[in-house]
Amino acid sequence: MFGSRFIVLASIGVVTLSAPCYAQVVLRVRPGAQTGGDGTTWNSAFSNLSDALAAGRALNSPTGVQIWLAAGTYKPASIVGGCGSVTLAERSASFEMFSRLTILGGFPATGEPGLSERNSAQFETILSGDLCGDDPADPLIIANRADNSLHVVTVDFAVQAVIDGVTIRGGNADAPGATRGGAINAIGSSLTLRNCQIVGNRAGGSGGAIAAAPDFKAPHNLTINNSTLRGNVAGDQGGAVYVEGDGTLTLRFSSLIANRALSGGGVASQASRVRIGSTSFLGNRAYPASGLAANISSVNIGGGVRVDSAELLLMNAIFSGNVAGWSGGAAVFNAPNDLLSVYHSTIANNRSENSLVGGIAINPPFFSLQSRVYHTIFWGNRDSRTANKPIPYIFTADPAIADRPWVEYAQIGRGDGGSVVTPSAFDLRRIYMDGQFFWTGGGLSGPTTPAGPTEPARSAIFANAIGNNVAAGTELDDLRLIRNNAAVIDIGDNRIIAPDLLDLDNDNDRTEALPVDFSGAPRRQNDPQTNDTGLSPPFAPFVDLGAHESTVEPFTSWKGVGDVADGSFKDLSAWTAGVPTIATSALFDVIVPTPTNPNPPVAYQVSIPSPSQARRLLFQSPREVSLLFLATPDNDLLLSSNDSTTEPSLVIGTIPGLNATMVMRRQAPAPPFQVSDRNSVLASIVSLGNAVGTRGTARLVSPGSMLSFNTMLVGNAGIGNVQALAGTTLSGPVTRLGVTSSASGGITLTGANATLAFGNSPTGALTIGQSGAGSLVLSGGALVTRSSVMNEFILAQSAGSTGLFSATGVGTIADLRANTTRIADAGIASISLDDGARLITGGSGRTTVARTLGSQALISLGAQSVWEDRSPGLLVGQNGPASIQMTRSSAIITNGLELRPGSKIAGEGEIQVNDGTFISVGDIEPGVTDQGRNATPGTITIRGRYEQIVAVPGGQSSSGQVVLDVTDPASAQGYDRLDIIGPALLGGGLNVRLAPGVVLPANSELELISALALSESPSTPPSRFDVAFLPPVLDTQGLPTNRFLNMRYEGGPGRSATVRLVQDSLGSPIDLADPDAFDPAGEPTSVVAGDITGPGGIPDGKPDLVLTVPNTANPLTANGSIVVLVNAGTDGSGNWLGFNRSIVIPAQREPVAVEVAHMDDDSRPDLVFVNRSSGTVQVARNGDGDAFTINATLSAPGEPVALAVTDLGASGRPEIAVARFAQNDVRVFVSTPSAFVFSPDAIDYAVPPGPISIAAFNPDQDKDIQQQKRNLAVASATSSSVSLFLNDSNELFVDLNVLPPVPVGQTPARVFTANLGKNDLGQSINAVVTLNRGDNTISILSKTAAGVNYNPAVSIPAGFDARGLAISDLDLDGDRDFAVISRGAADADDPLRINVIRNDLQAGGTRNQQLSLVPAESLDGGPNPRFVVNANFTDDTGGKQDLVTISEPGGTPLGDRGPVSLGRLLRNRAVAGPASCSPADIANTDGDPGFDGALDNGDFAFFFAAFFADVDNPIRLNADIANTDGDPGSDGQVDNGDFNVFFNFFFLGC
Prior knowledge:
It contains five helices and 118 strands. It is an all-beta fold.
């Protein structure tokens, strides 16, 4: 009755695809794994938990870390010197939690399990303090603990962590200063335990298992859900749990069993709030045992719970068989000013061994006027005065009320034996005490029932209060209410049902009346056998008393009369109380061993000789019970409950801990046997595993056996399984598996024509994993059939649920067509098809996969398997991640398919789109991959139209990517392919990867993608990917070559179209060398480059560095500085002279960002900066290059963190736009005609949460979006998006229109804008770029046309721990490259370097078709570089861009502060290749689009061909070389301005 409620409680996992998809990091641990793993896959798992914790802590992930533990035992320390010499340091080691950590146990120890395979009950994961491995096999025996860990787990100040699905045992806190919390010691933290077993731990002080206390800065918060704490011992208080000080302990759906301490055998609290819901306390002791001290009145109190000076809430609680040496066998409450609330609880069979009050003791003077007890049963509690007294044990020491038999000291009362509780002290309503029922409150002053019935009659209120072992305080106690008992059933007062303060139905509504009982069954269930005597305005049914609603009824029990020795019962007459009828129920009960029959049979059989009926059948015997149907016509067993719409008529599994099994067999009929010959059990509602902790199994083994039902609940609240063999049938319109969150239910259909039939009902429904775990497994020709389209098919319906559908074998077909089909509705779903199996889904509504946030789906299609979806369209990854893995010859058939961001289709197979379009904004990954590298090349074939860019709801847009691997370029089967038999419109990203060691032959070409067409019409060029991430071309030694990869798009409508990977000759390689060091001083928070000053204070063309430097000692409270490092340039020999002096400008508190801008009319640039803690913006006027004065201080409260200074179009002077992190907006200070004077009315523009960076930009680089006005791009870290501002300003006022946010990678830290170069069509590729720290990516929003219609973001890898970015033309080929600070591996020991991602758009003097980015160089930027900026610091001719880095020790993450130790300059030594020497240089040496550094006939001929080309011919744009003002540039038009610019520059020459 008191078992675990959540058999499987899955958590959201994170699996990283090739592009950024998920926020949370997952690390895996498996005992025996090879050392050196990084935990990113099971093949590279850590071998011990301590290493994984260290790695996870180092990641400092803002979105959290999950650690997945495979089954096995993990210990906090290894013994170095042997068990005879265990050191205190070794014992002091523990598993130290860190913030945003979730530990998930219960994964199999082999294979590559995901969350759907996780089962903590089957795959036990143990955190053990038994360092020497010599603890007794029974963890409840506390022995050999001297060498055990003091604490197995520790949780320090401000840590928030979750531990789920593990067993923690063997802790022994017995050292000075470490006497609390043998299993877990938590200080000032927030810790949640779920699905855990905390067993056999010890503490010399308090908290045998767990101790929690506040820190001086923070309270504690300890939550325990669906866990068991058993056999823990404390030498002082709290055998299982001890809490003290400011904080809260919440226990839900848990069991505390056989724990002991001097006081508070289960739980003890000193001034911490204790809230207990749907939790049982069984057999705990506050009593001398195993050497504990003798009985003391102030010590041995509270066998179950002791609470001092704090709130105690009991709701749906059960206390049974707890013992106190002095008072309060169940609980003691000592709190003069706090609330004691007891609602709907059962306090039974507890005792005070040597003193007073076996139930709840309230010790004077602690009678709280706030205390209340409603709808609670006190039964059979005993103290020293009642041990030998007759029923009803009513005593009073107060003569004034001696005639009121309404208080039983043994049940609830004063723990000192004084006078009874006065009427004003308690609010007790609807209370039952050993035969006494009390109607109303005010100290039970209302009328009562008669003095009480006899003991046997009163015992009948419970199903089995002392269990089959005849001893209270174990899991065999069955305290459910027996029906037809007016003393406790349908007698409550619905007006005073307590609110659901602990959310015991998990719907986040804590104001509703308590909706469920201890087992999760609905409250207010009517018992038709009991007269209604309660109060219930305005309507019935009436609530029952106690922790359970009435669920048990009198049965005709099959106890084992007749020939029980062989377990064979001949027919239905073998019942202890007559043959069951339609008005009675049959109970297959436990066969208890007796002296005459010490070994009862393991199974018994019931013969059904003729058509029979009964009201209900309940199977609770752990023996297997077979129903043998004799071969007679229409021989069925009909079950029909009176209230069949809600009450199950066939229940298998009713007692926690016992696995009940029903087997259906048929007597073989005379030949010939007909499959149509069937024998059936017909039931309205079938329930297997009906209550929490129960197990029920039904097996249909003989062909022709049928279980027919209206509704089948497999795993209603416990564990249920149905097994149907060949030729058997499960038939009914509604089947639900894993109904409640505590449940696990599975159906297995094995063999030909093993069938689950849904018939012709319009309400037909199949739910696999409704709130718990569900599975449906078919094999060997099994079938799922339906006569009409069902209403719904749902896999993993609720958050936290898991659902598995599996089908294997030729002829195995599941027809699950339903008008509503949701796969991973809100939970985690898996579908597996293999070996020719077929799944059919769909109906009138669209089929969705991973519908809600938090949902996740994994779909595997094996050889020859087919998934056919007949809905209007298949939506994969609607709001959660979904993965479809295909195997050669598998197929998906659909009428339309949309693959959303974060989801992928991988492997090899065919996708047939009949009528609609396959729209992919997720990932397409042909081939089978292993740890991100290709293991087996493959081809995905798409039959139908394919598009890889689309708008998604909410005004946002997204793009997909194709990931292709090359393992053997010499073979046609040596690389991945995407074959589209239909038209294709490409966009988004392309990621091509070379397997390690692969060398591409010179001039090789690989056809990676084919389609019928890549454009809509013959006159439009082929569609292209927006961004390609390509590998470098290496030689056989792994060294770079002078070649690069590029994509070539060919073909159009009416002819075959291809995308080929080709090689070209690289122009100038990147060459950044000759590092020079300098000392920047201070601890800067930002760095920019700008020409501030020179000789005489006039800018000299040498870029200087400007740093924001907070106060080192007190950055948040003391003023900081702006520091200008003045660049001395180079000497006559070209040697750089460094930054030879500095200028310090006073700032306010915590300066974090600075811009260089001309704010007045002189020639000297000024400085504008923001102070985060001060909430201000300051403008420093450049007086003479060395003296700066603060000319304006502007108010910007709300954590200003970034700014942009640009003319937004009002006065002709620059405006200041400031991103305010805490305000979620951008504040614009509008300039006036007077320098340094701003309008008093700043304008605030709301942006998504967490604005962190801002940039002004001009998308066309020479012509603004509208009327020559600048625009803004704002990156928001919290919402992982970029907002673009459309400038609608005029000369009178600033007017910015904020466009809908565009999603980018996770947690952007910086935003940049850049012209990345020109393509072969002459189109400038302008981009908004973000550096994303959450997933270590760079997101690129590119565009080639005028306006702000940027393509959706494409994200490329930026390495690990990415923290700084510069965008500059480093190889002098005319396009801009990326220099990013990152690590090459996830290991924190891997050094931070400057990793260059080369842009090959204009490589080799050719304007290529594709923006191609390539990992190129890894440069030493000094120790732990933090910032990187680019400028021509060394005054090289040609404007070569050098890089400057500023480092900090220890690799402190961006945003943290640490002393900066070094600056380093990397000088650009690249040699320019062919470059455009003039706007008229528009053709290369072959006369094709490009440039060659010369003006010749090729340029002349190409310009005229382009200028006079048809309007819709894309070559025409190559002649667009002038803007609307007639200056060099572009404006999207070919007109006379372009003609004039060409001739003016052509005849000037180069």
